[in-house]
Amino acid sequence: MHKKISSGSPWEDIVGYSRAVRVGNIIEVAGTTAMDGDVLIGKGDIYKQTVFVIKKMEAALIEAGASLNDVVRTRMFVTDISQWEAVGKAHGEFFKSIKPVATMVEVSRLINDDLLIEIEMTAIIEI
Question: What is the value of pTM for the model shown?
């Protein structure tokens, strides 16, 4: 099985990427930010952005035939590592019992200066 999941963003065709790709029982979800179309969700609030991003990624996982329970890795790219506790709080609300491996690193900036976090996920469906 090779299934591509689209978010409908025009950037997918311009840049050449998919929101998520499922190959067999593995699902990779692309770096995802708090943009809802052209609207930024949670401007200035990394906690709100993180919650929105995880929910957005969860929808892609569901479309690919998985759930957050299948996530084995998250990668979080933040523009201000001093806000790690707010990011960790939001991440923990979704993954407290799932406990995927997780990475959080500070980056100098994201594609839009108002974006505070970008997240990637890997999920593996048991077969």
Answer: 0.95
* Cβ 42 vs Cβ 49: under 8 Å: yes
Tokens 């960790």 belong to: 88
- One-letter amino acid of 91: H
Of 9, 50, 4, nearest to 28 by C-alpha is 4
Contact 82, 5 (CB under 8 A): no
- Is 89 in contact with 47 (CB distance < 8 Å)? yes
State the residue for tokens 């990779």.
28
**What would the pLDDT profile of 50-96 be if each residue is shown by its tens digit?**
999 999 999 999 999 999 999 999 999 999 999 999 999 999 999 99
**Distance (Å, rounded) from C-alpha 68 to C-alpha 121?**
10
